[in-house]
Amino acid sequence: MGIQVQDVEHVAKLARLKLNDEEREMFTGQLNAILQYAEKLNELDTENVEPTTHVLPLSNVMREDQVHESLSQEQVFRNAPDEEDGQFKVPAVLE
């Protein structure tokens, strides 16, 4: 099973790409080379290889949640450029 020029034309049409004859031939060859490489991978003996989701062992590196006291509203607004009615006041972005 290989990629034919018609397959490349179909994919180009779906992607709304306009390809000339040279590009069609080039992409057909490139896609066939990719498929040949994938077929070569099928020759590997993976009988005793455990399935993994990643090549390196990964573990959760996040820390446990710790409850802390929140800042007071007064502390929060200390560095605010402007405040109004307990909310940050910013310049309008809509006209």
Structure description:
This protein has 95 residues and is mainly α. It has a domain at 5-41: Histone, subunit A (Orthogonal Bundle), CATH 1.10.20.60. Helices cover 38% and strands 4% of the residues. The protein is built from 3 helices and 2 strands. It has a two-stranded antiparallel ribbon with strand order 1-2. Strand 1 (83-84) and strand 2 form a beta hairpin. Helix 1 (5-14) crosses helix 2. The termini are far apart.
Question: What is the structure about, briefly put?
Answer:
The chain is mainly alpha-helical and 95 residues long.
How large is the share of residues in beta strands?
under 5%
Q: Profile the largest sheet.
A: 2 strands, antiparallel
Broad structural category = mainly alpha
The CATH architecture of the domain at 5-41: Orthogonal Bundle
Low-pLDDT segments: none
In whole angstroms, how far apart are the ends?
Answer: 60 Å
Number of helices: 3
What order do the SSEs take from the amino end to the carboxyl end, as H and E? HHHEE
Say which CATH homologous superfamily of the domain at 5-41 is assigned: Glu-tRNAGln amidotransferase C subunit, N-terminal domain
Mean of residue pLDDT? 90
Q: Rg, please?
A: 29 Å
What is the CATH fold-level name of the domain at 5-41? Histone, subunit A
Order of strands across the main sheet: 1-2
CATH class of the domain at 5-41, please? Answer: Mainly Alpha
Instruction: Assign a percent range to the helix content.
Output: 25-40%
Shape: elongated
